[in-house]
Every structure is written in C-alpha cells, then in structure tokens.
Write a structure and sequence with these properties.
Elements lengths: L5 H15 L4 H15 L2 E9 L5 E7 L3 H7 L7 H6 L6 E3 L21 E8 L2 E11 L6 H64 L4 H26 L12 H15 L3 E6 L7 H21 L4 E9 L2 E8 L17 H10 L3 E6 L5 E8 L2
Parallel strand pairs: 6-7
Antiparallel strand pairs: 1-2, 1-5, 3-4, 4-5, 7-8, 8-10, 9-10
Helix pairs in contact: 1-2, 1-5, 2-5, 5-6, 7-8, 8-9
Length: 374
C-alpha cells in the first residue's frame, strides 16, 4: 500500500485495534464507521449490514445528530445506489454521487452529499456489509483514499466474523443457562411443590376429624412454601436478562420479536429509532415490560398482529407494544390477574418512568412505557 504514509498506517493500526477490542456486534460496527470517517477525513460515514432478503438489517451513521436521524426517517431498504451495492462486491467512487446512474435522490431532511466512496466488506464471496463515506474535507476522494478504506474494510470483515462467532457462542450459553435453570427448578423446586401439595391435601382431610393434626400439617405447608420461595430466589435473583448483556435493549427486543414471530401464528414486528444505551436497570425494566405485554397479547388477547416499537421522544425513550387482540376495559376490574399490569407499572415507576395503557373491549391494546434517556 504505497499510497499510505507512516501517520496513516499508525491511524489504521489504531482503528484496527479499537475494532478488535469489542465483541458486541453493535460496538464493532460503530467503531468501524467512526474509524472510517476519521481516517479519511469525511463529513459523513455510514455502514450497512444486509439481511436475508437483500435489504439493510442494520444501518449506522457517523456525523449526523440525533435530530437529523429522526428527521431522515426509516433506514434505506432496497432502493437506489446503497441497495444496489449490497449485490455488487466492487467499490464505488464518485466526485458527485448525484450523477451516478443508480442514484435516486435523498429524503427531504437528508443532508446534501456530493463526493462519495463506497466499499464492500467481504468474507470470501459473502458481502458482510458496505462502508459509505461522503463529503471529504478538501475532497474529492482519490485512489489513495480508496486503498486506505479497502484495508480498513478487510480488517472490518475479520472483526465482524469474530463478533458473529462471539454472539453465536453467547446464544449457546443462553440455551445452556436455560437448561441449567430448568434442571434446578425440577430438582429443587418441583419436588418441594409436590410435597407441599400432598401436605395441603392431608391437612384438608384432617380438618374436621383431627384439627390439631391438621394445624400441624398446615405448619409444614407454610415451611415448605417458604423454602420453595427461597429456592426460586436463589435461582433467579440477580440474573439480568442475558439478551441485554451484549448489544442492549433494541437488539434484545428485535431478537425477542423475531423469535415470537417464528413460533406463533400471529405476526410480531419490531421497529426502532437509533436510541442511546440506557442504564442497566432501565433497560431491564423496559425489556420485562415488553415481555409481559407480548405474553398478554399472544397468550390471552388472541392477537393476530403485535407491533413493538422503540422510539426517541426528546430526552426520553418510549417503548410501545400494540396488538389487535380482544382488548379490555382498563378502568374496570380485570377479568384475569395474570395480565400483570400492576407489575408493569411498578417496573416503570422503579425505572423512573411511567406506563400508559390504552384499551377497549374488541379494540386491541396499546402499552406505552416512557423512561428517561440518560
């Protein structure tokens, strides 16, 4: 790479070390796109990761404010030059991208971009993603810039593959952890609950003919119930949802929605704005509220469609779960205590937020949780 001087090589080395220091896919991608913009002195940079349908599964940008992101709207899908590059392993360099045959214009709030450099991130014949840079300071981009970005993309491919492997290993650990908990529940709690049930039945049989023995049996019931409670606490207390440990709330909710969409007849979708990482307690509270709302919609409300959204609203982050199920009257007595509304409200309150529920018989339900964004 004769076009790179010693300072550029030092910058590339620093960028590669920064990328490989992360295992979370989201952290890897954000580090790559930030390093690319800094190395090539561009005003804007973006990185897109394709999904199985040829659209963008993830799309990160650097150089845009949160307000610009919000005004631009949804991430690009299969249109225009960016979509075309997902099917072409060749780089694209243009002094004015607006003159490119595949260019189809910008959304209304999109910043104006002229000179452009797009580089595929490839692993063998697979396109793992695309790096996009625009508006080089003192530009346009030249052949040396292209070669520098090619080098970074090669290292980015290694980092993305490693992050994938790490996430698969983590998913395997999730399965193993669930199996461990299931074993412990069976070994420690199930037997105790069975004993509790038998003792309660014995006490009921003795109530009339031998009240003293019945009272003694009830003492045993109380002791077994307390022991079962402690066993459960020892298994679950302090365990943070493993899905939140890596990429955070948005990625965890997306995985949850994808899983439920596969295993239920109802359509379950997820959409999100770019949101900041929240403190651990708020992420867990929002995740648990989403789980409860999804459970209610799919198991109790007979919903055909459920939509989960995570949005920015000024300084707050808003989680919304909307279903088209049978609904209920939130002002009346709940027909089923298992709806867990009190639990959801308590989680929201403990996280410094609030929970709103809109529903009516036959009109579906909307559960909205708002929490501070920082």
């Amino acid at each position: 790479m004769g076009g790179c001087d010693r300072d550029e090589l030092r910058e590339v080395s620093a960028a590669v070390l920064a990328v490989t220091a992360h295992r979370s896919m989201r952290e890897v991608l954000q580090t790559i796109v930030s390093a690319a913009r800094r190395l090539l002195d561009a005003e804007y940079a973006a990185l897109g990761i394709p999904d199985e349908l040829g659209s963008f599964r993830e799309f990160l940008a650097d150089g845009l404010t949160d307000e610009q992101w919000r005004r631009i709207g949804p991430i690009p899908r299969q249109h225009g030059l960016l979509g075309a590059m997902l099917r072409d392993p060749n780089p694209v360099r243009s002094a004015d991208i607006r003159t490119h045959p595949s260019f189809e214009g910008y959304p209304a709030a999109h910043p104006e971009m002229a000179d452009f450099l797009g580089m595929p991130i490839v692993d063998g014949s697979e396109i793992l993603g695309e790096l996009f840079l625009a508006n080089k300071r003192g530009g346009p981009f030249d052949a040396a810039d292209e070669e520098l970005l090619r080098l970074l993309a090669a290292h980015a491919a290694i980092a993305i593959v490693n992050a994938r492997l790490y996430e698969r290993a983590r998913e395997l650990s999730i399965v193993e952890e669930r199996q461990r908990i299931a074993r412990e529940l069976h070994d420690a709690v199930t037997q105790k609950l069975f004993s509790l049930r038998l003792t309660a039945e014995a006490a009921a049989a003795l109530v009339e003919r031998d009240p003293a023995r019945a009272a003694a049996e009830l003492d045993v019931v109380r002791r077994l119930a307390a022991e079962a409670t402690e066993e459960l606490k020892s298994i679950v207390v302090g365990l943070r949802p493993i899905d939140l440990a890596g990429d955070g709330l948005a990625a965890a909710l997306r995985r949850q929605a994808d899983l439920l969409d596969r295993v239920h007849e109802a359509e379950v979708t997820f959409a999100a704005d770019p949101v900041p990482r929240l403190p651990a307690a708020r992420e867990e509270a929002a995740y648990r509220v989403a789980q409860e709302a999804l459970h209610n919609a799919l198991r109790h409300a007979s919903a055909g469609r459920v939509a989960v959204e995570l949005r920015r609203a000024g300084p707050r982050v808003v989680l919304t779960v909307t279903d088209d199920g049978r609904g209920f009257d939130p002002r009346g007595d709940l027909p089923r205590p298992r709806l867990g509304l009190a639990s959801m409200r308590e989680r929201a309150r403990a996280a410094g937020g609030r929970l709103l529920i809109r529903s009516a018989p036959g009109a579906g339900t909307v559960v909205t949780m708002e929490v501070p964004g920082a």
